[in-house]
Design brief:
1% strand, 18 helices, mainly alpha
């Protein structure tokens, strides 16, 4: 996508023309724009596995091996496409930047592939298995990879001003939290899931609406963002692309980048297993199947700290440092998870533990991308070139691979423990009580693992002190460009 022809006119130009971050950029580009794709993905992260186990009843396919092996193997392809996408982004040259043009392409792809995920035909088991594998990889390995790579680079490429960049990171995370913490975690369990149950036609209608909604909103993100860092480099003269292996060596020889990748790997492992086990925990351990109350209560308690964090986290991060606030947060994160783990069937105790845990998770939720952007600037200072696309591809490989791997592991644990899917009896969804071993698997997935990951992450962050002299390094980068 090195040519400039389709961007030559004004129709596809960014609507953001200001030197500093504008209000429309924050509200439309970073808050409202991404919300469609993020809502779709949040629903999939929480409910796609439920659709496979409870609606399509794929738990027993291949003796229970299909839902274990298929998500893991799919992530091999996903990893490859992430690397390819990172390579392509770093070599994309257009007047609209190197990442934003791919947002434009992702908009229709998300809508089409999101619908295909759920329109699995009522046919033989073999046909259903093939449809699930193909549609899953079209969405995750193709459409969402293109969106996620370009979307995640918007904050690092938006500006070098660390204060403005931090503000955009907060707005970006508000969009994520609004979708996952309010709509998916509150509205879905309380209103939508009791309405659709395991009725396949209702699932298809719902997910088609959400998929189509992602199209115009993703276009909004495209038009109300801009890549000031990329354009700054273009103004100082085009440089030949840095060889792929040179970029890769630079990434994997930098201690800060290795630390932040290890951090994200550990965090994603804990949160992925927690996310996939959430619905099962509410249905079988803490409450009753689709009772419309249990998951809502947990989500309300989770949503209150996230609302507070909009106003509190960034001022604290500016005063004490992004790394320090995040480190302290993870100690609270582990404490809250430990409280939940001790009393998983006690609603009051669970709510207290979840409140503590979510307070601790605020800094990670709101300032991580700003911290990642600091590491990218540090690498540019160190190497003399940027490696945004390749660095983000590794970040995304961790994200998507661990979601698939963790889903496969959790499904394997469920199957081996003897999980029994619900049935439709006389038009109503009926779920049986699960065994103690099934409940144990679900409880560890939802509240046990994050005790461990919270402590490990707090220790790891001690070594991530990239903020210490990032201002000086950014000034040196600008001085080099002016020579």
């Amino acid at each position: 996508m090195a040519g400039k022809s389709i961007f030559a006119g004004g129709a596809l130009r960014s609507r953001v023309r200001t030197r500093d971050v504008s209000r429309s950029e924050k509200w439309l580009g970073y808050l409202l724009g991404p919300s469609g794709a993020l809502l779709l993905n949040a629903v999939l992260a929480t409910y796609l596995n439920v659709y496979y186990t409870d609606v399509l009843k794929l738990t027993t396919v291949w003796g229970g091996a299909f839902l274990v092996v298929f998500p893991i193997l799919s992530k091999v392809l996903d990893a490859v496409t992430n690397v390819v996408m990172g390579y392509i982004i770093d070599r994309t040259r257009t007047p609209e930047g190197k990442a934003r043009p791919w947002l434009l392409l992702s908009a229709p792809l998300l809508a089409i592939t999101g619908i295909l995920l759920f329109t699995v035909p009522s046919a033989s088991e073999g046909i259903q298995v093939i449809w699930v594998m193909v549609s899953y990889n079209l969405y995750y390995s193709f459409a969402y990879t293109i969106f996620n790579m370009s979307h995640n680079l918007m904050v690092p490429l938006s500006t070098r001003n660390t204060t403005q960049r931090g503000g955009l990171s907060v707005f970006n995370q508000i969009a994520t939290i609004m979708m996952s913490g309010i709509l998916v975690a509150l509205v879905f369990p309380m209103v939508i899931m009791p309405m659709i149950g395991v009725d396949k036609s209702k699932w298809i209608t719902l997910m088609s609406v959400l998929s189509i909604l992602a199209l115009p909103l993703t276009l909004l993100e495209y038009f109300f963002t801009t890549e000031r860092v990329t354009l700054e480099g273009q103004q100082t003269g085009e440089k030949p692309p840095v060889p792929f292996m040179q970029q890769l060596r630079a990434i994997f020889s930098d201690k800060y980048m290795l630390i932040i990748y290890a951090y994200f790997l550990i965090y994603t492992t804990g949160s992925s297993i927690k996310n996939v086990s959430l619905v099962y925990f509410c249905n079988y351990v803490l409450g009753a199947y689709n009772d419309g109350f249990t998951q809502t209560m947990l989500s309300v308690i989770g949503g209150i700290p996230m609302g507070i964090g909009i106003f509190a986290v960034w001022p604290l991060a500016k005063k004490f440092g992004k790394r320090n606030v995040t480190l302290a947060g993870f100690l609270l994160y582990a404490l809250g998870s430990a409280v939940c783990c001790a009393f998983p069937t006690k609603m009051t105790v669970m709510l207290v533990g979840q409140f503590i845990k979510n307070i601790g998770g605020l800094p990670c939720s709101y300032v991580f991308m700003a911290l990642f952007a600091d590491v990218l600037d540090h690498m540019e200072w160190k190497t003399g070139f940027r490696s945004d696309g390749i660095a983000m591809s590794v970040y995304n490989i961790i994200a998507v691979a661990m979601v698939g791997i963790c889903t496969g592991i959790f499904n394997g644990m469920l199957s081996s423990a003897g999980y029994i899917a619900p049935e439709i009896v006389e038009g109503a969804t009926v779920a049986v009580a699960q065994t103690a071993s099934v409940k144990g698997v679900i409880t560890f997935g939802f509240v046990g693992l994050e005790v461990i990951t919270g402590v490990v992450l707090a220790v790891l962050l001690i070594f991530l002190n990239v903020e210490r002299d990032i201002g000086r390094k950014q000034a040196e980068i600008k001085a080099r460009q002016q020579k």
